[in-house]
Design a protein that fits this description.
single chain; alpha/beta; Rossmann fold; 13 helices; globular
Length: about 425
């Protein structure tokens, strides 16, 4: 039977420039894709940009640009960053592309016609940066738990998805599939969410307030809520519902995300899939926060980001990739700054890196895209922090089971 692997990053929001947090998740995904190709898997690696919504619309206004021109410019910056980092993605999806819009409209119609979308009014506490409502219990000292900013009380008429209807099913599914959400602590967090009613999900915004989005197929006065739009990229890029890539890769999907978007991926997305009759993804792998110099989550909104372009220019591509893979334990919050990362890159780059990763291995940006026979079959892999099958596959493991030099294939397949 053919071995198949499909890995995705979140599609990154284009309200500002790429930062080191984006780079980290993308490098991890790239590493996993390269390793699986080397091990003979038919592999597909997806990344991209999320380009609709109120936050993007406001950012374009502040920049004095048309929203489409603004997202085109920032999306190019993400592509440029990934090129400089040697990211070997197979596809780069943008939510403003027609292929994506068609899938969003198709799924919306399907769920609406099944009776799982209705019109109603809602009042709640809203974070513009997160583009989602929060309950009083979720706030931290009355502020958004992610951005530390005041939330707005909003009341408006929207369309709602009957998410609560699928809560018992999702709770049971996660309990029966203990490795669906990893690390385990995040699985427990999701089960705690599902232990009480989650309510229904607002899936539209009035076009009079947020004109930048995909109009609802049955009501042109509303645009699609950014999460109901963005999450569908994982299947739209594969040509859902009839594409060969969708049939081949979707049953093997691994999502890599940050913990700030756990609820959308672990609750919104599975219930959307169930309502649309789409099978579940295989794994949700949740990374911790990269903390900025101020000790808070690195965020464009907070302005505490580390610029990957500056680090690339100063230290080089492979040194930065190696640092991100070696020094940041997946799933844990980790402080990152140039003061912290610079010393970590300088001594290890000329010594350890040159020995361990000589040749086109999976942590090197020179690794081949195509599949090739695995040089590692039958070896004992170190166990620890990694993602592959829970076995701890990371460049930079200090385990003595690594040989002193890796016998990588000598030529590209």
């Amino acid at each position: 039977m053919e071995k198949v692997f499909y890995v995705t990053t979140p599609i990154y929001y284009v309200n500002a420039e790429p930062h080191l947090g984006h780079a980290y998740t993308t490098v991890v995904a790239d590493f996993l894709a390269r390793w699986h190709r080397l091990d003979g898997y038919r592999t597909f690696f997806l990344t991209g940009t999320d380009e609709h919504g109120e936050t993007v619309y406001r950012a374009a206004e502040r920049a004095g640009e048309d929203p489409k021109a603004f997202v085109d410019r920032v999306s190019r910056r993400f592509k440029r960053a990934w090129d400089l980092l040697g990211i070997a993605y197979d596809d780069f999806i943008r939510t403003t592309e027609e292929r994506h819009k068609k899938v969003v409209e198709l799924v919306l119609k399907k769920v609406y016609e099944a009776g799982d979308i209705y019109y109603g009014e809602y009042e709640g506490l809203y974070c513009v940066s997160c583009e989602r409502f929060y309950t009083e219990k979720e706030l931290v000292e009355g502020l958004c738990p992610i951005h530390g900013r005041p939330v707005e009380r909003r009341r408006e008429g929207n369309y709602f998805f009957r998410m609560e209807k699928y809560r018992p099913w999702l709770q049971e599914y996660i309990q029966e599939n203990p490795d669906l959400i990893r690390p385990e602590g995040y699985r427990n967090e999701v089960l705690a969410m599902l232990s009480e009613p989650i309510g229904d999900l607002s899936i539209s915004r009035p076009r009079s307030r947020v004109p930048w989005g995909i109009p609802l197929p049955w009501d042109e006065n509303h645009v699609t809520y950014v999460w109901f739009d963005a999450l569908l990229n994982y299947v739209s890029a594969l040509g859902y519902p009839e594409g060969e890539a969708y049939r081949t890769f979707w049953p093997h999907a691994w999502h890599l995300i940050g913990k700030d978007i756990l609820k959308p991926h672990a609750v919104f997305w599975p219930t959307m899939l169930k309502a649309a009759g789409i099978p579940m993804y295989r794994h949700l792998n949740v990374g911790g926060f990269l903390l900025g110099p101020d000790g808070r989550k690195m965020s464009k909104t907070l302005g505490n980001v580390v610029d990957p372009f500056a680090l690339l220019e100063k230290y080089g591509r492979d040194a930065l990739r190696y640092y991100l893979l070696r020094e940041i334990p997946y799933g844990q919050d980790t402080p990152v700054s140039e003061e912290a990362s610079g010393p970590g890159m300088r001594p290890t780059w000329p010594t350890i890196w040159g020995t361990w990763c000589s040749g086109p291995g999976p942590c090197s940006s020179a690794s081949p895209r195509a599949a090739s026979p695995s040089p590692w079959r039958g070896r004992n892999w170190p166990r620890g922090r990694g993602l592959r099958g829970g076995s701890g596959l990371w460049c930079g493991s200090s385990s003595s089971t690594w040989p002193s030099r890796r016998p990588w294939p000598t030529s590209r397949p």
